[in-house]
Amino acid sequence: MTVGEPETPRAASSRAKDHSPWNWLLFVPIVVPLIPVLFNADSPRLFGFPRFYWLQLAWILLGVATTTLVYRMTRKRGGDR
Predict the structure, then answer these.
(1) What is the superkingdom listed in this entry's lineage (predicted)?
(2) Rounded to an integer, what distance in angstroms lies between the CA atom of residue 70 and that of residue 24?
(3) 66 sits in which H/E element
(4) Whole-prediction pTM value?
(5) 17-21, Cβ contacts within 8 angstroms, sequence gap of 24 or more
(6) Which of 26, 17, 29, 15 has its CA nearest to residue 61?
(7) Half-sphere exposure (CA, 13 Å, Cβ side) for 52?
């Protein structure tokens, strides 16, 4: 496909039909950091950093791990194309 050509209906429809239940797992790194009770304290401290700062790093690691897991569980195998 060159620049400016419309997508073929087959390519667009194959993307739109990805209804894997694994995709729901992607809400975890979005919703968990929005729970304010997790940030509402100064202790425990980890290496001298208050809870808020080291939890921010934990959310990044949680997001990367979740995204990697969902990608590996939902990607198409070589023979499924």
Answers:
(1) Bacteria
(2) 9
(3) helix 51-74
(4) 0.66
(5) 18/74, 20/73, 20/74
(6) 29
(7) 5
